[in-house]
Amino acid sequence: MIDNHIIATIIVHLFIAIVQLMFWRKSTAQRFLSVGGSLLVLILAFKLFFKVYEGGILTMNAANWKAPFGIVFVADLFSSTLVLLTSIAGLAVSIFSCVGVGRQRILYGYFPIFHFLMMGLNGAFLTGDIFNLYVWFEVIIISSFVLMTLGGRKSQLEGAVKYMAMNILASTFFLTGIGILYGISGSLNMADLALRIPKIQNQALVEITATFFLIGFGIKSAIFPLYFWLPSSYHTPPSAVAATFGGLLTKVGIYALFRVFSLLFIPNHFTKELLIALAILTILTGAFGALIKTNIRRLFSYLIVCHIGFMIGGLGLYSKWALLGAIFYLIHDIMVKTNLFLIAGVVRQLRGTMDMNKLGGLYAQYPKISLLFALVLFSLVGIPPLSGFWPKIYLFRDAFQLEKYAFAGALIIGSFITLFVIAKMWAQVFWKDTPDPEIVEDKFADMIGYKKTMLILPVVILASASLYIGLNAEAIIHVADQIATQLLDTSPYINAVLGGQK
């Protein structure tokens, strides 16, 4: 079904960014515009999600050029769910940024760039054209590079150089893959490619092309051994920026992997084994990396890497229940990881540092805030019945049924290490005695009520979303089940895009 409202979430972010450029020197106006615009995008994202959920896949042909010749946007349940999750996370970060980002950064264009980044994310999720996926990735990379370097501190520039270098490498592999793919198939439309690729005689060249995509998206989603840029760069920008990166940027790489390796390159035995091996190594290196970190944001960065392995493993197993588990984990992970970096920002306001060795006494001084943080940490660990618990059941189930015991072992090790490092963090940050009051820099206590609310409210919003995911797991499983079914049977997607042109 054709629906031109698919791109509303993209257009609104673009419009907000342009209007904010007109208020370049007025930080208060930019704050109001950002929160109001993000709220509007969230309403549109809910509308899009329920339209797709109830009515099926929607498409939009740019300038009425029909696929496969024109640019097409496609909203299936997978993409519309990710647009919705991105919008929830975007609203939370937007509210947090009103206080969590300094006025100078705002005057250098923080909010317009943030909305360009959100526009790029929604564009990447909704495009039905492989080259335009690359274009949206470039929008994301340029926006995120500017956000990472705003402020110009040495550590920021160092992290941004690593981030940019690896993303340029990823884009090179991605663009090379697109070039070969176009050369051998003559199309860039993903639905059309899904029909043409099986008919290509030189399947060895197709597999080489798939490897280019795997490397390109593997760098972006931070899988082993291409993840090292992530822990080196995510601890440097402000917490609002780190929350956007930690919650959303790696997930667009995961989305691209799931989309390409279910629609274009159906995994064969070798690809499945390779994905599972990469998942195991990603889980283990991420988990053991987190063990030795004392900076909260570095610890969370390694946990991002560890849990990326859970999702890649689900793709490697490539069964309905494993894909369901991986999609469920993706939904849970976006909410929790965004929230963890916001929490790290609040901890910095409470104590002036994120070094666990210098922290302590938060539960005694701020018991209500600590319990709120505990809910998020328990969700991350997967304490039943919270959101991190349910998807692991499905991943374990198929790991054992398909006799992938090494992956099951990595899941167990990754889960236990996550539990251990979070317990250690809780003991050091919340239960340990309060550090010497002379070295504590508590900016939060002196804030006016409005500013305190703007810092805590986003954490409450995302924690509520995590709680909903955990306590209403049946509804999330139903959505993830439908997404997994659509990933395994792509004919509805192809029919919606190409209609009678097959």
UniProtKB/TrEMBL annotation:
Membrane topology reported for the UniProt record: Multi-pass membrane protein
Residue ranges of domain NADH:quinone oxidoreductase/Mrp antiporter transmembrane in the record: 129-418
Alphabetically ordered keywords of this record: Cell membrane, Membrane, Transmembrane, Transmembrane helix
Record flagged with keyword Protein biosynthesis: no
Cell compartments where the protein resides: Cell membrane; Membrane
Coarse class of the protein's main subcellular location: membrane
Transmembrane segments: 6-24, 31-50, 70-95, 107-127, 133-151, 163-184, 204-228, 240-262, 274-292, 299-318, 324-348, 369-390, 405-423, 453-471
Record-linked InterPro entries: CPA3_Na-H_Antiporter_D, NADH_UbQ_OxRdtase, ND/Mrp_TM
Family assignment from sequence similarity: Belongs to the CPA3 antiporters (TC 2.A.63) subunit D family.
Protein name: Multicomponent Na+:H+ antiporter subunit D
Organism: Sphingobacterium zeae
